[in-house]
Amino acid sequence: xxxxxxxxRGEMPVLATAIHDGHELRREVxxxxxxxxxxxxREEDPHTGAWTVVAANRIVARRxxxxxxxxxxxxxxxxRRPEDAWGLQVWxxxxxxxxxxxxxxxxxTFYAQARAILSELVERFGGAIVLDLHSYNHRRDGPDAPAxxxxxxxxxxxxxxTLDRSRFGRVADRFIRDLAAFDFLGKSLDVRENVRFRxxxxxxxxxxxxxxxxxxxxxxxKKFFMDEWSGTVDWEAWEAIQQALASTLPGLQQExxxxxxx
Length: 262
Hints:
- The protein is an alpha/beta fold.
- It has a single domain, classed as 3-Layer(aba) Sandwich (Aminopeptidase).
- It contains seven helices and seven strands, in the order E-E-H-H-E-H-E-E-H-E-H-E-H-H.
- Strands 1-3-2-4-7-5-6 form a seven-stranded mixed beta sheet, sandwiched between helices.
- The two termini are about 35 Å apart.
C-alpha cells in the first residue's frame, strides 16, 4: 500500500485527503503514456498532499490520476480518449484491458480502505468530516495568456453539490466563513461555494455510503499559489493556505459535535 498512498490515523473525527496529489506511474503505464511529466503535472494537484497535515487522519495518493482517477466513477476512472482528459492524447498506443484491470484493482482497493477508515471514524465519533483537497488551473490559454476571469474562478471553491444541507449545512457554512475570515497575508481569501466545482465522485460516493454521518467538503484551491505552467511555487502563499485550512478545524469539530448522532 505504501507505494499507492500514504495513510495516517489519529484522534480526530476529521479526515483530509489529497487524491490527485500523486505523480508516480507504474512501469507498464509509464511505458505507454504519451504525455511528458510536465504536461501530467499541470493536470495533477501538486503540493496538495502536504496540506492534509492539518488533520490527524489523512490519505495522500502517490499514483497519478493518469494511471487511475480516484475522483471519477469506476467506469471512467482510467482515461481512454482525449475527451476524458481535457483533450490530451494520453496514450501512444491502445491500452490493453489487462493494464486497465490492474489500474481498476487499485481503485477498488482505495475505496475499500476509505470505507474502512470512515466506518471506524463514524463508530468512534458518531460522524466525521472529510476535507477533500484539490487545486485547479486558471491559465489554460497558455503561460503568457491572461488568467481566467476571477469572478468565475474563486481562490477557493468549496464543492457541496451532493451534501445534505438539511443535516450538514451549518458545517459547510462554518468552514466557508472561517476560511474567509483568516488573515491571508493581509487580506481575505475569496471563498465561494459551487462556483467552478460541485464536488466529484469521491464526495458523491461518501455521501451515498454514509448518509447523515459523514460530511464531505470538496476544497478546490485555485493555483494562484504556483505557476501552473512552470511548476514554480510561491511557498509563502502555499503555507498561508495550509494555515488557513488549519484555522477551520476547531469550528468544524464544534459544529460536528453540536449535530450529535443522527
